[in-house]
Fold this protein.
Amino acid sequence: MQPEDLLNPDNENQPQPAKNSPLLSLERDLKFFKDSIHEVAIEIMVEGLSSYPIFIAHQHELKLGELILDRHDLNSDWSIHASTLEEFTERGVIKPELKERFISSYKNPNEYMCVFVVVPEGANFVYVPYKK
């Protein structure tokens, strides 16, 4: 904050320049690829691999899950890997003592994709509806 900002309270209501969030490009990519992602989720469940498919969105190299959408091949901003709750638990991403809490907050996989978003600042789970 600049000293002038403290002396001029009118600056408080001035619109701040918007920063280009990488999450805007993620939202665009997920919207574009949602049908393909949904097909993979159904396949994971039908084949009995897991009742809890998880998709990992990232912009760098990652050794978790299986690559299903490569940003370099598709000319997009994000790559998507498919994984499961079981792999996340096995690899220590979700601690065994937090597994039940994850399951209780997990949304219907027929309606929502569970996305583990990895950015340089950290990672977090988000749920994105297939239909909007």
Remarks:
- The longest strand covers residues 112-119.
- The CA atoms of residues 29 and 64 lie 20 Å apart.
- DSSP finds five helices and five strands in the chain.
